Amino acid sequence: MKREFTKKMPKELKKEKEEIESKLLDLARVTKVTGGGKNLKFRAVIVAGDKKGKVGIGVAKGIDVSQAVEKATRLAKKNLKDVPIVQGTIPHEVQAAYGPAVVLLKPQKKGRGLVAGGTVRVVCSLAGIQDISSKILSRTTNKLNNAKATMKALEMLKK
């Protein structure tokens, strides 16, 4: 008779890992020029959230795409931040900057929906915000900077 040994995880940890959803925000090919030539790597930006008020961003580089995505996902789940959500929206208007990126977030009435573009939409939807209006005030299209500015704005919120 053959016995199988499996590592048992506590039910709480298993549920927590299943609940957190992650989304690939940006994937870039980056090179480092050295004396010996060019070193090619991939940079992945992942946003993870439980849609119940927790969201995080992970950035990692790897030799191949799958390694970079895996590392970034692990970092995003590790760096989850709490976001105060009141009746499906944020409590007050907030503006934040990260580098050249400037983001403005405004609360909206119930039923208005996510009126946000690209990066801000992904971060807010994974945080669990249903009704919000946003505007990227800067000219930068860098997804990483816009995501970090959005995270900074969400961290500035007070209950």
How many strand segments? Answer: 8
Helicity, in percent? Answer: 25-40%
CATH topology of the largest domain: Ribosomal Protein S5, domain 2
Detail the poorly predicted runs.
none
Q: How is the main sheet built?
A: 4 strands, antiparallel
**Element pattern in H and E:** HEEEHEEEEHEH
- CATH top level assignment of the largest domain: Alpha Beta
Strand order of the largest sheet: 1-2-3-4
> End-to-end span in angstroms?
59 Å
| Tally of domains | 2
Structural class: alpha+beta
**Known CATH architecture of the largest domain:** 2-Layer Sandwich
Radius of gyration: 18 Å
Tell me the number of helical segments per DSSP (H or I, 4 or more residues long): 4
Q: Summary?
A:
With 159 residues, the protein is an alpha+beta fold. The chain has 4 helices and 8 strands; from the N terminus they run H-E-E-E-H-E-E-E-E-H-E-H. Strands 1-2-3-4 form a 4-stranded antiparallel beta sheet, sandwiched between helices. The protein has a 4-stranded mixed beta sheet with strand order 5-6-8-7.
